[in-house]
Amino acid sequence: MNQIPLLTTLVFLPLIGALLLILLTGRVRIARIIALSIGLAETILACSAWFCQSTYSISTTAPNGFFLFEDIPWIEQLGIRYTLGMDGISLLLVILTAVVTVVSMLVSWRSINERVALHYILLLAMQSGIMGVFLSLDLFLFYLFWELMLIPMFFLIGIWGHGRNVYSAVKFFIFTMFGSLLMLLAIIGVYLIHGMQSGSYSFGLAELTGTHFSTATGLWLYAAFLLAFAIKFPLLPLHTWLPDAHTDAPTAGSVILAGLLLKTGAYGLIRFGYPLFPEAARIMTPFVIFLAVAGIIYASWIAFAQKDMKRLIAYSSIGHMGFVALGIAVWTPVALSGAVLQMVNHGLTTTALFALVGMLDERAHTRQIEDYGGLWDKVPIFSAFFVLFAMASAGLPGLNNFVGEFLILAGSFKAVPLATAFAFVGVILPLVYTVRLIQEVIFQEERRELPMPDLTSRELSVLAFLALCDIYIGLHPAPLLEILKTPVALLTGGAP
């Protein structure tokens, strides 16, 4: 284990903060300050892993490509170990998790006035679960964190949501729990088969990689993993829970749902699905590509019909995650690098869009596109950010989403040119409905007299930071791609 257990700290610091807030249930201001302090400390720790990679010692037992690694026995009788690891892929997603969690706290700073401490307890508990998902290298440990992150989101939607919030919370829970239970059965199956073949029972990813499965067995086990991860993406036709959950969730819930939870499915497929079942993944690649491309086109088309801004952004998220699924399915270095980068890009851009819609909803108490218009004259600073992030989501060159989509399409074209050509339609359609959204909300003549003060200093700070991230990645993605180079090469079978 490293001298400083940074990975353990990243996983459990938010949970410790959540336990501390339990003692402050009735002290709203102090609860907010402590939660934000924990979130900022977590962000500093996550960024330190980027800036100080060379200062950490690498254990000789660490899997190749992991520059941070912590491994200690846990339940030795069952072959369960407490194993955490960080490579370039998990590093980017850990930093994204820390940043998006802080944003979710800030956007709910004034909008959540009931059960405030509980709200932040759930945000911190969910952050702990998501960190564990991105860092676990033991399948049993991964599954525990996978389940941990679901429960807080269920309560966030059910308690602070609006509209049909209970229906949406239950629908979210049923979909994700069904996939999780199938994955648990598959994990047990892999564990038993490996044990029978090797005589050593283990849940460790490094030990289980390379386990031989018959074609039929491998397909069934991979299908269970794929289903659990596809629900999280979500891939067509498993997407129906997402628009409802987004529409009825509070702003912080929508931010974390789009910015982080969708990424856990993509990460699980990259880290566990393809390495454990390479033959089954190769056989099912055409099927996954078909679902990815169908989802890109379908979600973009349905987004045209949406009148609720949150619902429109939710369908755009399905389309963008379809690009991620395409890049993963093709499994070439360029496409996979683009997929991971697009996960980060989508997390930043969609987080900003949901935050913007939440700010509008706080002021005018409506999210209907037809209720707005003329915002450029009334709230110019807000409008400028709205245009920037909307165009970033549409893939405007010079902004971050363009880089990820370009790499995915470039990396996919040689392998699946026809599917890539169809996926290109998913680049054009978002531009059309995004321009329509900007026109009707920002530049159209004012339809209703709505109370609309411009951004506060807190809101401006959040959006300015996210805007700088979008612009920096759009203009200079090289540092992110460089840190992805080694893990992507190792996963795809090339030289690091």
| Total beta strands | 2
- Beta-strand level of the residues, as a percent range? under 5%
The largest sheet has its strands arranged as 1-2
SS-based class: mainly alpha
> What is the overall silhouette?
globular
What order do the helices and strands follow? HHEEHHHHHHHHHHHHHHHHHH
Average pLDDT over all residues: 89
> Measured on Cα atoms, how large is the radius of gyration?
22 Å
Uncertain regions spanning at least 5 consecutive residues = none
Question: Count of helices?
Answer: 20
Q: Main β-sheet, in a few words?
A: 2 strands, antiparallel
Distance between the termini: 24 Å
- Helix content range of the residues, please? over 70%
Care to describe what's here?
By secondary structure, the protein is mainly alpha-helical. Helices cover 74% and strands 3% of the residues. The chain is built from 20 helices and 2 strands. The model has no long low-confidence stretch (mean pLDDT 89).
Summarize the structure.
The chain has 496 residues and is mainly α. It is built from 20 helices and two strands.
Considering the chains and any ligands shown, give keywords for the structure.
496 residues; mainly alpha; two-stranded antiparallel sheet
Topology of this protein?
Blueprint: H1 6-22, H2 28-51, E1 68-75, E2 80-86, H3 88-107, H4 116-135, H5 139-148, H6 150-160, H7 165-198, H8 205-208, H9 215-232, H10 241-248, H11 251-276, H12 278-303, H13 309-330, H14 333-364, H15 375-378, H16 380-393, H17 400-413, H18 417-443, H19 457-475, H20 478-492
Helix pairs in contact: 1-2, 1-4, 2-3, 2-4, 3-4, 3-11, 3-14, 4-5, 4-6, 4-11, 5-7, 6-7, 7-9, 7-10, 9-11, 9-12, 10-13, 11-12, 11-13, 11-14, 12-13, 12-18, 13-14, 13-17, 13-18, 14-16, 14-17, 14-19, 14-20, 16-18, 16-19, 17-18, 17-19
